[in-house]
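Q: What residues go here?
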């Protein structure tokens, strides 16, 4: 089957799916449908498809297939500005389940590249979320029986494996006890993120998001509830964030400086003595100093089975608002002098100024996204108008309606271009 390309030129008045057509000046357009630049990636509007696991890879392969092609391409036809692929494992043992997508081998590149090319054909940007599940790996897909517990390494199905983490602490009583990672294990994982970034570049992605949220491996290192190490990767705040900083530097060393790089954070653990908003602000101040991150994606929870979350519409937006305020204020020292001075000299990977990582850039270049129970155009517009975030990630609403961008436009009384072949849908 051939890849799709238009057999004709665009009509003269056609701008592209998801772009407004009934305003004479950009000042008249609702902010939801204004473009924004993140590094050199230009989004045609502020609506982003959030990463959502599909659990659809066969034979423990991590290989994407026609399901992913149709799934992601539908959002592109529907006018989303950026589509971020699901949590994609950088190591085979880093998958949440046996059906997860992977990018630990070069064999994963062709299938991803085919999907990326399809999305690009609709003038939509595409990103990938790089992840390692840590102690929350080796589980069933959530819609199958037994999804609340681990699949053990010796399970006769062959769908389980040994899980690892910063410390031998279970996520819950139904989950496997993780093996504590050695320093060599940690370095191998950092290298795996770097190798995955190289493959992502070869596959044609515009954006990488490092998954440091929802109780997966990096989040496990950040939190004092799951990280009880006494070496350079545990204990103090600086030591607990070390793995994230080293992953960011490693990825940026191979991911071009003019390509957007983001990190998703669980800003609040929603449990006593866990990672909290104060910790997040401290981390963001350090990331701001480093100057290598272009987007902070603000989420929460996932690292404790005892979490108590007060769920309501836009419940995570205050986190993004707080981060926006930090980024828009003058940089200040993160502790006793520059944060680099607080990092043990046993490693030189934090705070590098190598040319591969690019020079530091001003605080105003970092963008902030929000996510979580955002389902209408009016909600998106209010978030953007109030300056609480720069872009809005939408998840489950897109599963209910892949053409939610059209719905948002109708709610905001904005006339936008539809996908050309779907022009009849604009008629009443």
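A:
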């Amino acid at each position: 089957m051939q890849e799709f390309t238009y057999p004709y030129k665009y009509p003269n008045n056609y701008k592209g799916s998801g772009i407004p057509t009934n305003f004479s000046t950009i000042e008249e357009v609702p902010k939801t449908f204004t473009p924004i630049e993140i590094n050199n990636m230009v989004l045609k509007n502020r609506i982003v498809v959030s990463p959502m696991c599909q659990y659809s890879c066969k034979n423990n392969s991590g290989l994407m297939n026609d399901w992913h092609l149709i799934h992601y391409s539908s959002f592109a036809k529907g006018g989303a500005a950026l589509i971020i692929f699901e949590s994609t494992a950088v190591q085979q043992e880093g998958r949440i389940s046996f059906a997860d997508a992977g990018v630990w081998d070069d064999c994963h590149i062709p299938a991803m590249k085919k999907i990326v090319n399809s999305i690009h054909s609709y003038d939509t940007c595409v990103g990938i979320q790089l992840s390692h599940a840590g102690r929350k790996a080796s589980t069933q897909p959530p819609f199958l029986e037994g999804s609340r517990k681990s699949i053990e390494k010796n399970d006769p199905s062959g769908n389980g494996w040994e899980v690892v983490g910063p410390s031998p602490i279970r996520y819950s009583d139904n989950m496997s006890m993780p093996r504590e990672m050695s320093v060599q294990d940690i370095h191998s994982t950092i290298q795996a993120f770097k190798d995955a970034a190289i493959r992502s570049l070869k596959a044609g992605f515009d954006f990488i998001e490092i998954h440091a949220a929802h109780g997966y491996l990096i989040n496990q290192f950040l939190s004092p509830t799951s990280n009880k190490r006494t070496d350079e990767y545990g204990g103090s705040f600086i030591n607990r964030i070390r793995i994230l900083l080293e992953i960011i530097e490693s990825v940026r060393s191979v991911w071009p400086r003019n390509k957007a790089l983001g990190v998703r954070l669980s800003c609040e653990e929603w449990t006593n003595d866990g990672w909290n908003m104060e910790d997040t602000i401290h981390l963001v101040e350090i990331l701001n100093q480093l100057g290598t991150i272009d987007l902070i994606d603000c989420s929460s929870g996932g690292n404790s089975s005892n979490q108590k979350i007060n769920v309501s519409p836009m419940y995570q937006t205050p986190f993004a608002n707080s981060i926006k305020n930090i980024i828009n204020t003058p940089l200040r020292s993160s502790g006793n002098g520059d944060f680099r001075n607080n990092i043990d000299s046993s490693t030189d990977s934090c705070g590098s100024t190598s040319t591969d990582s690019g020079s530091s850039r001003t605080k105003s270049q970092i963008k902030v996204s929000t996510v979580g129970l955002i389902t209408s155009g009016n909600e998106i517009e209010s978030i953007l108008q109030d300056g609480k975030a720069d872009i809005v990630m939408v998840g489950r609403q897109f599963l209910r309606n892949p053409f939610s961008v059209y719905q948002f436009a109708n709610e905001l009384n904005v006339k936008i271009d539809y996908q050309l072949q779907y022009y009849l849908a604009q008629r009443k």
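A: Context that may help when evaluating the design: The CA atoms of residues 238 and 343 lie 6 Å apart. The two ends are 35 Å apart (CA to CA).
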